[in-house]
Amino acid sequence: MSERDEQNKPNPEQDLNAQNLPGQRGEQGEEIRVQRGMFGANNGGDTTGYGGLVRSVRLPGAASRPYGGWFDEVADELEGALEEQDLLPENAIEKTVVDRGEITFHIAREHLLRVARTLRDDPALRFELCTGVSGVHYPADKGRELHAVYHLRSITHNRLIRLEVSAPDDDPHVPSLVSVYPTNDWHERETYDFFGLIFDGHPALTRIMMPDDWQGFPQRKDYPLGGIAVEYKGAQIPAPDQRRSYS
Amino acid sequence: MGLEEKLPSGFLLTTVEQAAGWVRKSSVFPATFGLACCAIEMMTTGAGRYDLARFGMEVFRGSPRQADLMIVAGRVSQKMAPVLRQVYDQMPNPKWVISMGVCASSGGMFNNYAIVQGVDHVVPVDIYLPGCPPRPEMLMDSILKLHQKIQSSKLGVNAEEAAREAEEAALKALPTIELKGLLR
Amino acid sequence: MTTQSASARETTEGTVYTVTGGDWDEVVEAAAKADDERLVVNMGPQHPSTHGVLRLILEIDGETVTEARCGIGYLHTGIEKNLEFRTWTQGTTFVTRMDYLTPFFNETAYCLAVEKLLGIEDQVPDRASIIRVMLMELNRLSSHLVAIATGGMELGATTIMIYGFRDRELILDLYELITGLRMNHAYIRPGGLAQDLPPGAVDQVREFVKTMRKNLPQYDKLATGNPIFKARMQDVGYLDLAGCMALGATGPILRSAGLPHDLRKAQPYCGYESYDFEIPTSDTCDSYGRFLIRLEEMRQSLNIVEQCLDRLEPGPVMVADKKIAWPAQLALGPDGLGNSLDHIKKIMGTSMEALIHHFKLVTEGFRVPAGQAYAAVESPKGELGAHVVSDGGTRPFRVHFRDPSFTNLQSMAAMCEGGQVADVIVAVASIDPVMGGVDR
Which residues form the NADH:ubiquinone oxidoreductase-like 20kDa subunit domain (chain B) (predicted)? Predict the structure, then answer.
């Protein structure tokens, strides 16, 4: 944890160099993959001579103020509203990422419910429509493998923001948002079904897509695709996840 | 099933076969078993332009008890497979199955954990119809081919004989992996 | 655990339960004690209605539905997982099969998200955007036609079903002319389109708009004022604005509650801000209002299609960046659509670099910088969002579709509970769920 915190701290030197451009995209996000070689294929010899390359792939890191556009307004309002509730914004909002014209608030999971309620009810924020949960499994992001991603839309102010919450694989618990956004009922069941992320406080967290007696959570990265090889006239074409890959 | 099952093999039985086949093929009642994209093409086939009524089968029965043809139109998921088998079991004999589209026939492009790789794992299939989705013309062609099959279906002792021969042929057939030749 | 209805015995494979029905006398006794006609009815997953493999679990008291629940997942296809093992371009082939009645919307949402990740939104040529808009609006027509046709059929009105499918065929002919396929097109690709419009397409679309203008009033004549139709649909499937917001319902359901929210106006994409059209609303909150909104949206879509045709100017339909654009010089050969002979001659005969480039781009694909993006389009059913995550590779790391059918179907319970059994079908038809989109 501490190492990543170091990385995610505001870096005055870098920020100065960037001259605090609006919407500055941080470069030091979580490492999600280490790529070896040039082309991703790892079977067969090193025919290209690039096999020794090692490169880590990182997600966009925390942005620094100003975020640009209405992002600052939303961030200010949210921080102000959280302070009013005696909640330190730094504790609730782990970091803020601005990337590709979208703002993402990484929320500490224990404060998710409070933050979501604030976002919905505060007149200056008013994110009244939640477009559901999307789970993402980052096996390489140690200690925060499972991410739940929420997109909140404000029809009043015509804005869209993203909330991201993470949970480790060995404690896959995230508070449920059904009490704030009832629409998340099925979305959370779907994310549970596919990723095994347990939404505490959900009224009936059961499988929704897979049969009730299904083993495992099929869209996690450690769950195989489950395809079978296609056999025809002596030839065998392996399932897509068994083939030589280039990524 | 009825008296025809007791008939001795010979001229009488083949005549009855022909008559029964003609009657059966002229009024096939499909069960509505639309699953995915192919179901929309199946509905299109029943609607105005393609007009399945020309072949005496525009009435899709909601209840499997009143149907004798199941057109499996679309991908069959692991969750749907038991339901599909139950619907098939509820259909009265004689009954036929068309596996419409590549997903129902072999799993198609969805070679993954969720989809049954071919509905023939669950029910016996009479006609495999390729395409993603097959055009209504293709569906009608497969239905006409099925009509031919129904017309020439056997009864009584002849049916037993045909079943035995089919099984022997299937046992002797090469598995696809041992087939030789060009991959085309 | 052994009860009367489930006896257990130990075997080498573990405990085996034999589940049987309860004793009939007990059931009768319990029913007599309950003193009502409460029944639990299962509709589906295979059923005469046309909304695919949807399972409804209804608790009914006489004719009144006291509780309604959905069972879904019978068409779960694992498309989102499959996408992770294919290149970015191949992804369109999968997403187009999600909600198979709105293929162009799925493709556009996915492609907009990928373009956002690549940072090439501004480089997509105008012609590509205009054709995208045109196809999406044609698709809105065909989707609404199916919604109205099957909705009518579920009421028992087969004529309107024949009408709907008749007009849908005309649109499918256009798709076939433009993309080569009636359904599941994979025509919209990251960066633009797979190929340009074929010769004669513009005239044919114009011709279609004329025909459709003539055909649309027939729906009004047949259904809008029809007393049976109105009696079945008015005040059925009621969901007001507060309910819509809480349940996340969008599209015609939200607009039937009086809120003119449409992403084409609110957060324009593909240049929708420059088109002239209106957002129909209604304040009845019921199935009839949704039906009227669909009819009016079809008229508006025809207007947009016409505007697209007027704007089309010759030009490229793919981004200029050859690292992204597929070498899509396609031509119709004797064995169907394929690479043009000129292109094959070039890569096989004269330019080895072009051959290498073609091979690399088609087999390996392009790389997309790490990050995530969300792109939403207004599909005929509501907000269709694509959340796409890249790990910097040639394949998507995760693609999630926020399908409007999935979210809207949740409101089924709110619409049906307290109503009549016969109204359940009407309410579900007015939601217009497509199970391919719900289950993905």
Answer: 37-146
